[in-house]
Amino acid sequence: MKSIKLSIVALFIASASFAQTKEVKVETAKAIQVAPTEVKAPATPKQSNIKWDQEMHDFGDIEKGKPVTYEFSFTNTTKETILITNVRPACGCTAANYTKTPIKPGEKGMVAATFNAASGGMFQKSVTITTTENGAEAVKTLSFKGKVLEPATDKKEEIKS
Length: 161
Prior knowledge:
Number of helices: 1
Number of strands: 9
Strand content: 35-45%
Helix content: 10-25%
Largest sheet: 5 strands, mixed
């Protein structure tokens, strides 16, 4: 008698589990029947029309651990007021400061990049600037390079007698 009851319970549990699987398949089939929505690629910002005085700066030889700064300057040659909305250095070793007020036509603005070298050798870094020009976002990448030298040390040689 116990085995008959146990068999009935097992049969009930098995049929309940198959019923759930079948329901999931129906939902999956319904989801596939839904018309796909059109996927649009995000709009990429255009290149900036601002006239920069210099787009690449060479620091030459610099000493490790001593920050160096270069100020990239530009003139607003457009017919509208522009605004620098974002300045993004390429790595954590570079910090940036920039003109945060709107720049009217004919006025000058700047982006200052400060580089602090943690290791020796050649380097080339960049800063990406996003501006609003003619009602749309525009981007420009400025670069700087140089060579990091190890700091000079004062080592006194011991004279052995």
